[in-house]
Amino acid sequence: MAVIRLGDEPDNIEKKSITTSDPLTSSTWDERLTALEADLCEVRSSDPIFASTILDAYTQKPDLKQRSAYHRLDVIDRCFSKKTVEEILSALEREATQEPNDWISTTIGALKKASPASLKIALRSIREGRFQGVGQCLIREYRMVCHVMKGDISKDFLEGCRAILIDKDRSPKWKPWRLEEMKDSMVEQYFKKVEEEEGSKASTKEELVFFYDLKAVKW
Predict the structure, then answer these.
(1) pLDDT in tens, 94-153
(2) Per the CB 3.0–4.6 Å rule, which of 31, 61, 74, 87 could disulfide with 27?
(3) What region holds the Enoyl-CoA hydratase/isomerase domain (predicted)?
């Protein structure tokens, strides 16, 4: 069962006439959301049980598209819960041998074509972001982007631009080329402070000042 959320129209849910909890009545998506909002506005208590009861009345099983990722959440959880990119890829390859699947094959192909540096940086960023606030996430992203653009550790960003936008040969030459060559110590470099931070007088991370040419942006 899934709760329809105000203002939410998931791509994975077919937009059509939606049957309410009463099988004798039906309404369009917009009408149903309007009714839900009106009912919630009538709540005069801070007790969550009241809002929960109203939401339950609008709860229904969504009509998912055949290619929706929701149909393969078990595979996604098994594979992408692994600790490293190498382990994730190995888990996907095991799944492919047990149950051939177009989605798994496409995912494996995409991962093998991607920059090893980008894969490992992205995985660490996602894992760290789960336990950080917005301010910390913005700081982390800023540091990552600065190091990526500088190209001191890897010039894969520039190589990707060359292969896709300039020469358009779609044959990037990543450095490092293999996942195992992208060491943890190299990944760590992308999350270190940048020179602009070292020169700032910020007292806390949340008040960190980022300098861009002649102006500063304060988070």
Answers:
(1) 999 988 788 899 999 999 999 999 999 999 999 999 999 999 999 999 999 999 999 989
(2) 31
(3) 28-191
Give the pLDDT score at 180: 94
Residue 200: predicted pLDDT: 53
For 11-46, the DSSP string reads TTB--S-EE-SSTT-EE-HHHHHHHHHHHHHT----
Total of domains in the chain: 3
In the chain the first and final C-alpha atoms are separated, in Å, by 39
Residues 125 and 214 in one domain: yes
One domain, residues 84 and 147: no
User: How distant, in Å, are the alpha carbons of 1, 89, 96, 158 from that of 103?
Assistant: 25, 13, 9, 29
How do residues 79-91 score in pLDDT, each as one tens digit?
Answer: 999 999 999 999 9
Q: How far, in whole angstroms, is CA 149 from its chain's centroid?
A: 21
Query: Angle, to 10 degrees, between the axis of helix 29-41 and the axis of helix 48-57?
Result: 160
In terms of residue numbers, what domain contains 12?
Answer: 1-65
Q: Report how far residue 117's alpha carbon sits from residue 195's, in angstroms, rounded to the nearest whole number.
A: 22
Q: What is the CA radius of gyration of the chain?
A: 24
Bigger pLDDT: 107 or 11? 107
The distance of Cα 46 from the centroid of its chain, to the nearest Å, equals 32
